[in-house]
Amino acid sequence: MNLSKKNQEEYLKKLGIYIVRLREKKGLKQYELSDLLDIDVRVLRRIEKGKTNIQILFLFKLADVLNVKTNSFIDLPKVDDSEK
User: Using an 8 Å Cβ cutoff, are 59 and 68 in contact?
Assistant: First the structure.
């Protein structure tokens, strides 16, 4: 992956869209997922909007809570940018 600033921003946006999809599939509101992750809901909002980079250890916790494989956050399924 080319890690230019533009590509990083694009990846974070797609990651955020993917997290929103997973959260909604589990029937969780933002505040509910943030409680499960023990983070402030404002932090989750920034993650879902692709406005912040997240630590790898957080991905493990997120994968556990959303019941997906950790590598799904690396190998993102195709997402439509128009959804977010």
Answer: no
60 Cβ contact partners less than 8 Å away, ≥ 6 residues apart: 70
Report pLDDT for 84. Answer: 46
What is the model's pLDDT at position 76?
Answer: 87
In angstroms, the CA 15 to CA 48 distance is: 7
* Residue 51 structure tokens: 């406005």
Region of 27 (left: φ > 0; alpha: ψ -120 to 50; beta: rest) is left
Burial level of 6, CB count in 10 A (0-12/13-18/19+)?
A: exposed
Percent of the chain with pLDDT over 90: 81
Average pLDDT over residues 56-70: 95
Residue 49 tokens read as 């909007």
Instruction: Give 74's DSSP letter.
Output: T
